[in-house]
Design a protein that fits this description.
The complex is a heterodimer of chains A (424) and B (255).
Chain A (H helix, E strand, L loop, with lengths): L20 H43 L4 E9 L17 H7 L2 H12 L13 H11 L8 E6 L2 H7 L5 H10 L3 E5 L1 H5 L12 H32 L4 H15 L2 H15 L7 H25 L3 H9 L4 H29 L3 H5 L20 H9 L5 H31 L4
Helix pairs in contact in A: 1-16, 3-4, 5-6, 8-11, 8-13, 8-15, 9-11, 10-11, 11-13, 12-13, 13-16, 15-16
Chain B lengths: L7 E10 L2 E11 L4 E5 L6 H7 L10 E9 L2 E2 L7 H7 E4 L10 H11 L6 H14 L3 H4 L12 H14 L4 E5 L7 H14 L4 E5 L3 H7 L2 E6 L2 E7 H6 L4 H7 L5
Parallel strand pairs in B: 3-8, 3-9, 6-7, 7-8
Antiparallel strand pairs in B: 1-2, 1-4, 4-5, 9-10
The chains are: A mainly alpha (424), B alpha/beta (255).
Main location (chain B): membrane
Membrane topology (chain B): Peripheral membrane protein
Keywords (chain B): ATP-binding, Cell membrane, Membrane, Nucleotide-binding, Phosphate transport, Translocase, Transport
Amino acid sequence: MNKPVAPPAPAERRPTDWQTPAMQRRIRRRYAAERRFRLLGLAAVFLSAAFLLYLLATMIGQGASGFTETRIALPLDLRGRVVVNPARLNGAGADLALAGAGLENAVDAAANAAYPRQGGATLLSDGAWLRVRDAIKRDPALLRTPTTIDVPVASAIDMAYKDDGDAASEAAVAALRPHLSRELNRGFFAGSDATDPTRAGIWGALKGSLLTMIVTLGLAFPIGVLSALYLEEYAPRNRWTDLIEVSINNLAAVPSIIFGLLGLAVFLGTFHMPRSAAVVGGLTLALMTMPVIVIAGRNAITAVPPSIRDAARALGASPIQVVFHHVLPLALPGILTGTIIGMARALGETAPLLMIGMRAFIAAPPGKLTDPATVLPVQIFLWSDEVQKGFVEKTSAAIIVLLVVLLAMNGVAIYLRNRFETRW
Amino acid sequence: MNHIAPKMTATGVNVFYGRKQAIRDVSIDVPREDVTAFIGPSGCGKSTFLRTLNRMNDTIPGARVEGDVRMDGEDIYARSMDVVQLRARVGMVFQKPNPFPKSIFENVAYGPRIHGLARSKADLTQIVERSLTRAGLWNEVKDRLSESGTALSGGQQQRLCIARAIAVDPEVILMDEPCSALDPIATAKIEELIHELRGRYAIVIVTHNMQQAARVSQRTAFFHLGQLVEYGDTSDIFTNPRQDRTKDYITGRYG
């Protein structure tokens, strides 16, 4: 070994002078840069929060009245006008029996008699007589005794009562004010699309969205998770898997309308599946959501520490046991979060569904997957296109419903992440 | 030399990571009832060689093993060898304690459960208790078996990992620097535990710490630059090394 060598003499040490003007200026500049950056960040946060608040305030301001309807007190005396065999009022034939007995005309006549100068039957919503019909079904005695029923008014009157109507309707409302009242619009949560805004409801679109999401989730989740697991845990690293990885990343960035064209060509063109159906919408959105789930899944799986895999393998666990006993449970919170974010995106998607015909006027909620259906964002798009003033508040109300659903989904994602996340 | 047949024999083993050769022509016998220590400077290939004994290198992409490794005369690299079964027979304890993020009970019960070693719930409980007792952890954890294994201290976690390894009743236990992440007191406990386990299992321990090798092992192998430099009884290696490289290393010239 070599002999120890004396270290070179240290250079003369001169203490740093922190008080020179140049040094002071440098320090001041550093603090100023710090403050500037903090203010900039704060401004950015405030700006985005302000945009969000403005959006919410506008939507709630315009949409809240969409959840209510104006009703008018209608004195009704149906004795002699509507004659129905009481036996037919029970069971399935009741609707048909009452319609056949001329109930609609009788209701119109009652309005003409009660409010002749304000417009009579034109004051009533198209659906007013249906309210009377339902009341009679609940209480057949109404056919034999004079009574007063609150029924929904026509859209123009409804708007005027909500301080947003035309001059003629405003005048009518001024005269009728003591007879008018404002109630929660239950029909909005139970009905489907309609040409009369007072009869339009969101349930059809909401149900269409739910059915579509079920198909999307049922397809995209298992395929996405299995792909992610295979690519991370089994696939060899070579040019082919690199190619697949690049393709999946690209697929996640493809504009959604292109998936719509693909769905149109493949599901409708080649397989002749029904147009406007929730199943086709679900399939199309599944194509779009799958890459998102694969990417989120792969990230969650790579985040599982290799030491856990080693521990399981060293105990003699087979590859499938390593995956299902250790890797998947630990990666699941991340996979679920990614899935729900992907689903939320699919729920808000309009463009691809327009391509496969889900923009049709659908007046009844879909009963099964192959029934014609529409979804929430498409319904919003359709209503925003309507000329009638009553649809403005319905559009905003539908947007509120969509936002609430999205918020709920994101809430579930956060809950799942906090609930199942393992820390080590 | 031992007249009893060795537990494992390796002959002419070469290991490659891609184009890089990590192990050059190593031949070694692992005795049946003794503790064997692998010592050597960082990167000398002692951990790599350890991982050839239970085929854990298979899981590293690009790793390739040549040569002949036998356990009780059976070629463990034969095509007919069931790797999953092999790893149940050759347990392993890692450098960093790696308990599963599950309860203490589940950590130990996992191995017996996947191999169907317990016939009943009571049987399983008994295996868990016996393994934890042998690992010297039972008295410390018996009241909190349902707590997470990751909540234990580092030394306790490592003993839990040893308990987990012996719960499947392996024939060989490989320990890859089991004390390098532990404080001296925890290290002393693990060494004590290795003494207790000696004779019941063939134990191979990789260590950086020469004092540790001298304390716990009966046989010592010195690796340098991927080669086996010297292998013999621990007392001989430390008091009377035959090779200059061994002598330089154990006297602290390099390492």
